[in-house]
Amino acid sequence: MKYRFLLLLMIGLALLTACGTTTASTSTTSTPANITVARLKSMLDQNETFFLLDVRTPAEFVQDGRIAQATLIPLQELEQRLSELPTDKTIVCICRSGNRSSVACNLLKERGYQAINVTGGMNEWKAAGYPTVFGQ
């Protein structure tokens, strides 16, 4: 029983580490500001001013569904495409689960942008039953 508890504890810690909001590829250890999908939905419904950035791959964006107002710039292209982002609006970043968007937020913050991460990403958005667009 004691060993089972230790094994479960070690597995839990490993999962927490693997699902954390920072990765070795980022040069910062700060955690970005986060919002829930419910808060994002409220912001969209109230026509708040912000830029919604989806950092998934083009295939995910089309096949897995997207939020209608989102602009796609895949994470691997983000640094080269910063000129496409507004400097006068908060950038709300979303991906599949919240990990890549967290990395994107850290990169944007390092470059002087105000960025917020959507925790749970599109997985949570779709699970909540919020509107999702499929295809081009």
UniProtKB/TrEMBL annotation:
Which segment of the chain is annotated as a signal peptide?
1-24
Asked whether the keyword Signal is assigned, the reply is: yes
Q: Does the keyword Mitochondrion apply?
A: no
* Family matches, as CDD domains: RHOD
Q: One GO biological process from the UniProt record?
A: sulfur utilization
Q: Which InterPro entries match?
A: GlpE_sulfurtransferase, Rhodanese-like_dom, Rhodanese-like_dom_sf
Question: Start and end of every Rhodanese domain?
Answer: 46-134
Q: What is an example of a GO molecular function annotated in this UniProt entry? A: thiosulfate-cyanide sulfurtransferase activity
Q: Which UniProt keywords apply?
A: Signal
- PANTHER family given in the database record: FAD-DEPENDENT OXIDOREDUCTASE, PYRIDINE NUCLEOTIDE-DISULPHIDE OXIDOREDUCTASE
The name this protein carries in UniProt is: Rhodanese domain protein
- Organism of origin is Chloroflexus aurantiacus (strain ATCC 29366 / DSM 635 / J-10-fl)
